[in-house]
Each structure stands twice: as structure tokens, then as C-alpha cells.
């Protein structure tokens, strides 16, 4: 395309999910409820871990980080989407679009690395139980958490800088619910092969590398579990990892389906549905998965509810 058609766009228009008013109102109500549930669920998990001393372990330290990432990721996308459901002009300034891309992409990368770190924690708990407290000491946990946050942020900063230095065509309509990398790159009037290479490298580093670490950890975990003679011992070891494994399958499975595929890639509708999965469904499900499938968390909930019930009884007297 000729250079005369290239321009530096100051704002974009997000086409969103639907142009029908009744549909948008219905989606506004639905996603408002799910967003509130997501925020409350993750905040309650963080508070529960802080209040119950039995949950002051490496596993729940990383779960706290995961909950903070989930609620932040949802907040980077959902409020803007809710505003646009009720807005006549669904405009987002270039700077806001870049900020949204940076935070959503960065938080997504942080989550992938965190899940790999949590897999290593489960590996040590199952395969090296007698040395668990020695290996997973506070200093190592802090360094692993910091590494997760820094690696995701640096990767996102690189992608955001590369994406928004591209000159855009006169068409400034983004066929997406948010400023997503592939959707923004499609508006460029120049060759985007370097962006495609950067996306692939990023997918390998921040998706496949942690996934391989998760896979190797669980191969060793399963091997260890199979060596346990008692059925009760096997069940206990499996339940130690069940919640994390469920989240891993959901998170990595969808990501691999999205980015590691032929050049044609997913359709615009698929991309929107995948973004909704990560922005709304997964952050809402994570607290439920860790609450319903974890005896320690359920026990902490019961203890907290009893304390609150006792407090309410005293206040009523």
C-alpha cells in the first residue's frame, strides 16, 4: 500500500461484540454481574489467605499473586467494554489503547509464568516433601514471583512499542472488544512480518517455555504418585495438585489454540470469544476452582464464616 495512505491515528473505534442496542444492554448486565463476581471472588481469596495463618505457605503466596493478576487483567478490559456497550461512539484514544494492550498482554504473560512457578511448587511438595520447607523458602518464593511480574511486563512493553510504532491506514476500526495485538496490527499500512516474528518468539518464550516446565513437573509428579502404594496416599497427592492442574488446562489450552496455529489464525469472532474467556470467565472461575477443590481453602472459609456468625450473634445481643 502506498505511503500516501499511511497516517498516525489518534484514536480507534472498537467494533465490539454487537451493534444491536438490545443485545448490548443484555451483555452489559451479564458482564457487569460476572465482573463483580470476579472482583469479589479474587479479593475474598486474597483476604482469606491473609487472615488464616494456616494458608501462609508458598502455594497460597503464589495463589495470592494469581488472584491479583486475574482481577487486574479483568479490570484492564471489562470496564472499558461495559462503557462501550452503552456508548453511541465506541472510541478509544491511541494512548488508552496502548495502555490497555500493555496491561492486558503483560498480565497475561505474568499468569503463564506464575502457573509454571506454581507447578514447580507442587512438584517439590509431592516429590520432595521432606525438603519442601527448605527448598521453597521465603526468599526463593519472592524471587520467583518477581521474575513472573518482570518477565511479563518486559515482554508486554516490547510488544506495545513495536505495535504502536506502526503507521496505520485510514481505517481505524478495530474488530475486537479491546486493543488486542493482532487486531491492531491488522490496521498497519506496512509489512508486519517483524511483528509476526516477535509474536511467535513471545509465544515460545512466555507460553511454550512455561508450558514445558509445567509438563515436565507433572510428568515427575504423576510418576511419583504412581509409586505410592496406598490408595489414600495417591488420592491425597492428587488432590494436592488438582486445582492447579485444572487451571493450567484451561489457561494453557486456550492460549495454545489461539496463537500456535497456521498463518491464517483465528477468525475475528474466535479472537473476541477467546478474549472474553481470559477477561471474564477464567478470572471468575479461578477462585471457585481453588475454593471448591481445595480442602484447606474450604476449611478456612468455614472457620471464617463461624467467626463472622459468632460476631454477628454477639452484636445482636
* Oligomer class: single chain
Percent range for helical residues? over 70%
Give the SSE order as H and E letters. EHHEHHHEHHHHH
How many DSSP helices?
A: 10
Structural class: mainly alpha
Strand content: under 5%
Distance between the termini: 78 Å
Describe what you observe in this structure.
The protein is mainly α and 317 residues long. It contains ten helices and three strands, in the order βααβαααβααααα. The chain has a three-stranded mixed sheet with strand order 2-1-3. The protein is globular and about 65 Å long. The mean pLDDT is 84.
Helix-strand layout with pairing:
Layout: E1 11-14, H1 21-51, H2 58-86, E2 91-93, H3 94-127, H4 132-135, H5 138-163, E3 173-174, H6 181-185, H7 193-227, H8 231-259, H9 268-292, H10 295-316
Parallel strand pairs: 1-3
Antiparallel strand pairs: 1-2
Helix pairs in contact: 1-2, 1-9, 2-3, 2-9, 3-5, 3-7, 3-8, 5-7, 7-8, 8-9
Keywords:
317 residues; mainly alpha; 76% helix
Quick overview:
The longest helix is centred in the middle third of the chain and has 35 residues. 76% of the residues lie in helices and 3% in strands.
Amino acid at each position: 500500500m502506498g505511503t500516501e495512505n499511511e497516517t498516525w491515528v489518534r484514536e480507534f473505534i472498537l467494533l465490539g461484540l454487537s451493534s444491536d442496542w438490545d443485545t448490548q444492554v443484555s451483555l452489559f448486565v451479564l458482564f457487569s454481574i460476572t465482573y463483580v463476581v470476579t472482583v469479589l471472588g479474587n479479593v475474598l481469596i486474597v483476604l482469606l489467605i491473609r487472615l488464616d495463618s494456616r494458608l501462609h505457605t508458598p502455594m497460597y503466596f503464589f495463589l495470592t499473586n494469581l488472584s491479583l493478576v486475574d482481577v487486574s487483567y479483568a479490570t484492564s478490559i471489562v470496564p472499558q467494554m461495559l462503557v462501550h456497550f452503552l456508548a453511541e461512539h465506541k472510541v478509544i484514544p491511541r494512548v488508552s489503547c496502548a495502555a490497555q494492550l500493555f496491561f492486558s498482554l503483560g498480565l497475561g504473560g505474568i499468569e503463564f509464568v506464575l502457573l509454571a512457578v506454581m507447578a514447580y511448587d507442587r512438584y517439590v511438595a509431592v516429590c520432595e516433601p521432606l525438603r519442601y520447607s527448605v527448598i521453597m523458602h521465603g526468599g526463593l518464593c519472592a524471587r520467583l514471583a518477581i521474575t513472573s511480574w518482570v518477565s511479563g511486563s518486559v515482554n508486554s512493553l516490547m510488544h506495545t512499542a513495536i505495535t504502536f510504532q506502526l503507521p496505520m491506514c485510514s481505517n481505524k476500526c478495530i474488530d475486537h472488544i479491546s486493543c488486542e495485538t493482532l487486531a491492531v496490527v491488522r490496521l498497519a499500512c506496512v509489512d508486519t512480518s517483524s511483528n509476526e516474528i516477535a509474536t511467535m518468539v513471545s509465544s515460545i518464550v512466555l507460553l511454550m517455555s512455561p508450558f514445558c516446565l509445567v509438563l515436565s513437573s507433572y510428568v515427575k509428579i504423576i510418576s511419583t504418585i504412581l509409586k505410592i502404594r496406598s490408595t489414600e496416599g495417591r488420592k491425597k497427592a492428587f488432590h494436592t495438585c488438582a486445582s492447579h492442574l485444572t487451571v493450567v488446562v484451561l489457561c494453557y489450552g486456550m492460549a495454545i489454540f489461539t496463537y500456535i496455529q497456521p498463518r491464517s489464525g483465528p477468525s475475528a469472532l474466535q479472537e473476541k470469544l477467546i478474549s472474553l474467556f481470559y477477561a471474564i470467565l477464567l478470572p471468575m472461575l479461578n477462585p471457585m476452582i481453588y475454593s471448591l477443590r481445595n480442602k484447606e481453602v474450604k476449611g478456612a472459609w468455614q472457620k471464617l464464616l463461624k467467626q463472622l456468625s459468632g460476631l454477628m450473634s454477639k452484636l445482636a445481643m
